[in-house]
DNA sequence: CCCTGATTCGC
DNA sequence: GCGAATCAGG
């Protein structure tokens, strides 16, 4: 990949927004984080205030202080729709999911709700939360990206929103 | 070990 | 100019 004007502009914009070099590299595609950092230096763009610090982490910590709104945590397991191609037959598994009793997933008021790091698909690792956010058909589609809990594709918070592990599913009375 | 940016230097 | 390798750090 070469540094076209378009890619350079995107680099400048994302760098100014505070994204890390690796995140920018993933957004641009075809370049490593080293390439991004090298380019930043060659462009004489202002470096980070504190070397080694994580801007994304800092922003997350700052925004986490925002009190969670109760509206976001209403039980919704039984009403959550499952995305699938139009006209596709409902799978047995999905039918069973609709039978799960409602689970109170509202966190206590003192629970810290992780804020999305807004990672792109290519930025996900084995230890980042893979909870999708937004419309996959739109530009701003991203994933939570918070640190995932052990043996889970999601962070602690989103794991509570996701379906329960098969072995732990509680059936409704009906 | 995960990650961060900074620097060096062969290409 | 480019970026992998490396360094120094959280």
Descriptive account of the structure:
By secondary structure, the protein is mainly α. The protein has helices spanning 5-17, 21-28, 33-42, 55-64, 92-97, 156-161, and strands spanning 132-133, 142-143. The protein contains six helices and two strands. The protein has a two-stranded antiparallel sheet with strand order 1-2. Strand 1 (132-133) and strand 2 (142-143) form a beta hairpin. The relative contact order is 0.11. Residues 51-82, 84-88, 91-112 and 166-174 have low confidence and may be disordered. The chain binds a DNA duplex (11 and 10 nucleotides) through helix 3 and helix 4.
Helix-strand makeup class: mainly alpha
- What is the number of E strands? 2
Supply the number of helical segments.
6
Determine the mean pLDDT.
Answer: 65
Helicity range:
25-40%
Give the uncertain stretches in residue-range form: 51-82, 84-88, 91-112, 166-174
What proportion of the residues form beta strands (DSSP E)?
Answer: under 5%
Global geometry: elongated
> N-to-C terminal Cα separation, in Å?
58 Å
Question: Which sequence of SSEs, written as H and E, runs from N to C?
Answer: HHHHHEEH
If strands are numbered along the chain, what order do they take across the biggest sheet?
Answer: 1-2
Question: From the alpha-carbon coordinates, what is the Rg to the nearest angstrom?
Answer: 20 Å
The description of the largest β-sheet is:
2 strands, antiparallel
